[in-house]
Amino acid sequence: MLSENQREQILKLLKFGFNDPMIATMIDGVTPIDVYNYRHANGITSKDVLENRYNTWAKLVDNGVSINRIAELYHVKVTTLKGAIWKTRSISFVEVKAKQQQNGMKMWTQGKDGLPDFDKLV
Questions:
Q1: How far apart are CA 63 and CA 77, in angstroms?
Q2: What distance in Å separates the CA atoms of residue 60 and residue 89, rounded to the nearest whole number?
């Protein structure tokens, strides 16, 4: 059975588009099936999670976070990330690169719970 803290962490990570197996590796004592069951009990579909992921990626890129860093955190190739954002959000990475070089790249920190703290960036 999931603790209240684990349930909060799962919802937070689903909001940022992390999939069930990734969430299970990020939270101690949670298995992918625990995440799956909790997600379904809350009516969150895998399509919802994917949409959240693309929204988060677009916001992070728009806020100057390195594409390489995003790809690393989500365990995807940079080309996969670029392709997905281009297809779903029509974001030009030529413009993104110029903007990041002009404004500098931003990083995020880990929260008290050890999970990525995107709240200030998205």
A1: 20
A2: 13
Burial of 16 (0-12, 13-18, 19+ CB in 10 A): buried
Question: β-strands 116-117, 109-110: how paired?
Answer: antiparallel
As given in the structure block, the two tokens for residue 109 are 């920190």
Could you tell me which residues are beta bridge partners of residue 77?
none
Q: Which two tokens stand for residue 85?
A: 């954002």
Tokens of 12: 């937070």
pTM over 0.90: no
C-alpha–C-alpha distance, residues 31 and 50, integer Å = 20
Per-residue pLDDT, averaged over 81-108, amounts to 71
